[in-house]
Structures are given as structure tokens and as C-alpha cells.
Amino acid sequence: MKLNQLKGMREFIREEDGMGTVEIILIIVVLVGLVIIFKSQITQIINSLFQKITSQTGTV
Fold first, then answer.
1. If phi over 0 gives left and psi between -120 and 50 gives alpha, with beta otherwise, what is residue 9?
2. What is the distance between the terminal CA atoms of the chain, rounded to a whole angstrom?
3. pTM higher than 0.70, yes or no?
4. What is the pLDDT of residues 36-55, one digit of tens each?
């Protein structure tokens, strides 16, 4: 019985089905962290882009 349990544990360790999900979650966490850290800079860039867009719409 112990041999079967040992084989089962080895197969469980070698299994990589869940790795894709874990990697995606880690990427999302890093991206959210970066957005939180650089929120003010991102807001400034977006505001300046929208100001340029609205000021240049009359020239088109």
C-alpha cells in the first residue's frame, strides 16, 4: 500500500496542469501592483493625452 501511495505522490508532484493558472494569477497580481504604485503617473499621462486629443479635434 505504501508503494501505491508513493507512486501517487510522485505523479502529483510531476503534474503541471495547474501551473498555467498560477502563472496567470501571478501576472495579474504584478500588473495590479504596478498600476497601484504608478497610479498618479498613469493618470497624468492619460489626462495629457485626452487634453491633446480634445485640443486637436478642431484642426481636423
1. alpha
2. 79
3. no
4. 999 999 999 999 999 999 88
Q: What are the domain boundaries of the chain?
A: 19-60
Place of cell 498613469: 42
**Residues ≥6 apart with Cβ < 8 Å to 42:** 35
Torsion angle, alpha carbons of 11, 13, 15, 19, to 10:
170
Helix axes 39-56, 19-37, angle to 10 degrees: 70
Q: What is the mean pLDDT of residues 16-30?
A: 82
* Gyration radius of the chain's alpha carbons: 25
The residue length of the chain stands at 60
